[in-house]
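hey m, so remember when u said the tokens were messed up on ur end? i reran from scratch. heres the input so u can diff it against urs
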Amino acid sequence: MSTVLEQEKPRGSAIQVPLPDEMLRRFQQRAAGYDRENRFFFEDFEELRDAGYLRMCVPRELGGLGYTMAESMREQRRLGYHAAPTAVAINMHLYWTGLVADLWRAGDRSLEWLLREAADGAVFAAGHAESGNDIPVLLSTTKAERVEGGYRFTGRKSFGSLTPVWSYLGLHGMDMSDPAAPKIVHAFLPRDSPGYSVVETWDTLGMRATRSDDTVLDGAFVPDRFIARVVPAGAGGLDAFVLGVFAWALIGFGNVYSGMARRALDLVVDLVKQRGSLGVSRSMAYHAGMQQAIGEMVLEFEGIDPHLDRVAQDWTDGVQHGAGWVVKIIAAKHHAVESAWKVVDRSLDVAGGFGIFRKGPFEQLFRDARLGRLHPANSMLSHELAAKLTLGISPDETPRWG
């Protein structure tokens, strides 16, 4: 299966991971242009593909580098430091290859085809976000209808971060053929399938380079060989596959925003050291107010990476947290994006009035960082799940008042 760009690379081509510093600097230099033009990061994508970055999580036995979650998350953090929108979009592909590689190593070879396709250059995107559904993956407003040889999907998916280049769209829908026992069907839609269309909707506050347009499904057919799972709707369907989606996606998001926060902090430190003022005899680094602001940013930032690293390492090591995994995953992501936002927001205060000009990095960082708090699970859902699971309440139970 080829991408829109028709630029697949052979499985045995060279892999340059970790990415060279000069490549990352090119990504950083392009970021402002992508954002300004609301343009997909085609040049970055081509370099990442050529470097083998998209095969990073594919097992070595199948033509990849075999990176674990702990290893790949460190690379995503580096990429996020230089070009966060590029990293967020690539995260959609890596979380499929990463979670399927985990299943493969655990003995579940049912999705080995996905890893072989990825090794041969296929790109996997995510089609989970839906208007009116704030519990992604576990529920769906998309209809999944069982037909001979597979399923037909009808609905509308948003935030398709790899829209211009995906080979397969990972999606889910709800099968209501038995209303008493609804099922969630997880599938991968090949790009050459009939019955879907892309609607250009992407004109947003931040993360503009992802070009995350909508995908409209109008009875799109997915054959059985590309059906990944059929599980109960709601929390009862949280098997290893679905939990892996949450783990790889959310910890990936957290690391991208950590990289962004690190960059904001570095930029501010350099700026303050160089800036003078008529009111002080030395650089603004000696200004008590600036020191207070920098201190706040440092103290906020220092808690992000250890939290993300601990969860990623536990996942890599196969630590048995049981149902506690959901809380650990959403807590790490929530902490990362909330703290990253505080760091970036404070950096704009320190940068001052000149920080709002679009020619500089702070204005873009500010807009991009704000979107981290909207990535699922958002703050409301994170608090609800953390509380219910800690209290021993099923996430599917609706609240009663009075």
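this time it looks ok to me. The mean pLDDT is 94. if urs says something different then somethings off w ur setup not the seq
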